[in-house]
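Example with several molecule types.
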Amino acid sequence: MEDERTFSDICGGRLALQRRYYSPFCREFCLNCPRLSLRSLTAVTCTVWLAAYGLFTLWENSMILSAAISITLLGLLGYLHFVKIDQETLLIIDSLGIQMTSSYASGKESTTFIEMGKVKDVVINEAIYMQKVIYYLCILLKDPVEPHMISQVVPVFQSAKPRLDCLIEVYRSCQEILAHQKATSTSP
Amino acid sequence: MVLKAFFPTCCASADSGLLVGRWVPEQSSAVVLAVVHFPFIPIQVKELLAQVQQASRVGMAVLGTWCHRQQEPEESLGHFLEGLGTIFSHEPWLQLCRERGSKFWSCKAIHRQVSAAPDVPSEDQVMLIFYDQRKVLLSQLHPPTVVSDHQDGDTMASTGGLAVVFDTVARSEVLFCSDQYDEGPVRLSHWQSEGVEASVLVELAKRASGPVCLLLACLLSLISAASGCRLWKLWPLPFIRSKLSTCEQLRHRLDHLTLVFSTQKAQSPAQLMRKANMLVSVLLDVALGLMLLSWLHSSNRIGQLADALVPVADHVAEELQHLLQWLMGAPAGLKMNRALDQVLGRFFLYHIHLWISYIHLMSPFIERILWHVGLSACLGLTVALSILSDIIALLTFHIYCFYVYGARLYCLKIYGLSSLWRLFRGKKWNVLRQRVDSCSYNLDQLFIGTLLFTILVFLLPTTALYYLVFTLLRLLVVTVQGLIHLLVDLVNTLPLYSLGLRLCRPYRLAAGVKFRVLEHEVGRPLRLLMQINPLPYSRVVHTYRLPSCGCHPKHSWGSLCRKLFFGELIYPWRQGGDKQD
Amino acid sequence: MACSGGGGHGQPSSAILSPVTPGSLSTSRTRAHSICMVSDFFYPNMGGVESHIYQLSQCLIERGHKVIIVTHAYGNRKGIRYLTNGLKVYYLPLKVMYNQSTATTLFHSLPLLRYIFVRERVTIIHSHSSFSAMAHDALFHAKTMGLQTVFTDHSLFGFADVSSVLTNKLLTVSLCDTNHIICVSYTSKENTVLRAALNPEIVSVIPNAVDPTDFTPDPFRRHDSVITIVVVSRLVYRKGTDLLSGIIPELCQKYPDLNFIIGGEGPKRIILEEVRERYQLHDRVRLLGALEHKDVRNVLVQGHIFLNTSLTEAFCMAIVEAASCGLQVVSTRVGGIPEVLPEDLIILCEPSVKSLCKGLEKAILQQKSGALPAPENIHNIVKTFYTWRNVAERTEKVYERVSGEAVLPMDKRLDRLISHCGPVTGYIFAFLAVLDYLLLVFLRWMTPDSIIDVAMDATGPSGAWTHQNPDTTQRVENDEVLDTPR
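Resulting structure tokens for the full complex:
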């Protein structure tokens, strides 16, 4: 019911995909990003403090040092709370909806739930991202007025950015549930 | 389709009995609202359901049976519960069972009529979803569903799936009014309010609010009638009123108060929230204003301010004089047209002289004026700030004048130059068609045009310098006024009540729901916990922002720079709207 | 394939009639190529280059090759799109500088272009139009990456003024180590060979084509009581709009039964409007403004005579389209125009008001006397001349030849740049090429080729695109509706 595989993200980093099959109509996919590494944290802190110390020797104002310390602390807190996402989860429940959760490094969670009635399809799309062309998984939402049109495209796994092989894995699973949903909803 | 049973968490420990709720066939979901305990008489249960249905306009029915095995399993109960299905016929018939010592529940949904053989009831896949009845009842979904027709509850089913659940629970509030300890004919188990604390006070306030509102509304209508009087419509007054930010702010506040104290009941929750927000905003405003007032009137701060004000105005005028003298020489080493430079400089110097004498004429009265102005702070901080903005505008009137003169001159030159440049190239602006046409000029026209062009080109730097300096001064004043205005706008529009509600009762403002998969065992139905997903703060502010005075900067930075370059007049934000109409 | 340097000038219609020389090139096709067309100019922008790229790509797809197109973003149209038959277009978010051409720093486009070339497993880069900075950038980067390159020149240039001297120098640099160059007419080939100091042996002539089924005559749409002259071109200096403004009043005074229909938009439109107002010709001169490509035929069939006043033209597609619609064509004798149509279908004049008026009068006389062949006959003659299938076949042979050639390694490339482009420019660009190579090495270190996802092929031998229902079988679905251009 539960297994774990490793994939890589578009920059070559390691990602762990956990799949949990609770029942035939409820599946969960969990992408774990690598944690904040001590090395990069030390590097950033050292750079800021060295720069601050350089300025301090230039101007001889101790305010600079205290400012540097508070900037590092606040920056770290803000980064952990608002930027660094440790885990992204996609929960798909037949005839109920799709739920996306991203957990930040500080423990904050932000959840979006999309009801099945609004979901048109789940597809893999291509996009130009920074200096790269990447594949991403996205949920297409129905336009409430015209059911054949797409009103919005909601990207999934926005921060982890897994590669195509991982996306295809998730995509197939989602399509199975969507196909079941379509089959049963047309003939109740 | 998978059958979804929504089950309230408060009923999880109830005794065995019947499940009462609503069946939504479109989504094949059963919303359980309450559990009816043994013993009961089927007729009475049906009567109760009919009563509730009439009051709430929600199709209520007995959905199935609930079996809570606290003691040793009883064989007879199972048969008895199955037999109930024949009394209360419902399609499908739910059989929910909680076993002792086991965390997992069993749930079956049985179709009777559909299956070919009546002896073998067909079973569906079932999913159990627990929800907190109280939170779902009190929460308000965002964005609110537009359909709010009270005639028939069943048309609601066409709107989104979960909205139906919320709607069902919210409408069957009647069901929850009956007390658990009442000795009614039917015993129910459902969520129960524990009673409001200090309910006497609340009750008193409720009783008092009606007359108070009526009284205040009368007062406010008197004030608005007085302000609508014909005397105020005489010529200069409306003009002045439209220019003074204080008047705008006062009118804005008056509107707020009339809305808050209007005796009509709020139609929708959004409107109620808006009223509460306005009231809190006004109260906070007045509280801050009173604090300012007490600070001002303690230890003669007004006198100190008044004493400081005149020297400051003098100082500003002096600095301006220095600036003008610098401009009349060779500013930054630029060589200007001497004659024009002198004329402009003297003109402005004379203006400053006039201004200083005006200030000195005023100086004996300034303290008294300030004292009265200070009193206005009891109407609110925003009013005091608006008055401050107006005072700044009045005290820097000379800078405004300089700016207008400079801008007009500069504008004239720029337009002259651009049309003469067209003449230079054998083109002209066609007013009728709004485009540039080619045109052949005769020799005299070309000669005069060229001469004028040369003169204008050589005089341009002098004018442009004056324009630049005074525009910078003007921009400084406008920036200060803009900041004050932003502060006023912030107090005016911030939905404090909604923010407080989000902070203390996050479930009241729901952005949606989230699900958590509970522990699961193979062969048992899937159990999910439905929780309320609170609205993020940014969305709260966005949704419940009170309307501002409608004086946002209308032009972007690009158009502002363009206007500055072509010498068109820019105004602070308040007048921006009026001018562009 | 006419790739030898035989002078085709002064020999009208030789571009069409020159037979495909069989030889080592025309061996049977062994493999499908993966081709990337790069140009700044593509739909929704309108013009000759755009339709050339589109039609050529469609015919190559039909022949089983994999084709993608790379261009820059047009307004809201950015990202990746699929056109008819799974033609994949990358609209890259690069800044447009002037005239729909991107600004170039020679380096900033490398990361994206490299990523695309790697993920699409491109083997041949085919750049279009010498005005397009992106095309030159792509050539430069492709050579750095060791890919085969082909360039198609669509325009003619002068040699005298400052701007053309500079452009020619850049073209020399850009083309000196390009594998193969394609020109659209012999005049254009001569011009390009001279400008870029090329070996004529690596320059082929493949003319443009029109889709004859799109341009069919319809004689009932025109009124035979009056004679209508049609002009369809962008209203810019290069297309001779100033000449047109001289011709209109002169002819309108002479012939009271003469009407003009002018389609197209541009900065010179104001001149025509002024002429119309000054001579009170509102009922006789109709200005239609910008035309969509699908409307061009409906405009053409309303006229009897087509007038082309271009001052420079490598291969004029407009006159072929007009002739295909059965119109008598009057044109200036510039650039590659004399090669395009046989003499009995076109009246050639010098690019002056007087000469053009004379030519038009001759055409009007012929029209009035009924000496002209029927539109259907003209159409039947013209439709055999230029077809896209033929163009695609000939282009395929170029690809075949190019894929057998070796790409110059870095040291040889530097030698060639220095020896071929003059001492100063050569060293500068050799230095830039080295920088480009270093940047490429850096990028390969940052994101190795192995972690770039290989894109799903929509076209080509393993193409996933099907004609019946591209939505369901396509794993990679596009975000927008599949839109065909036009």
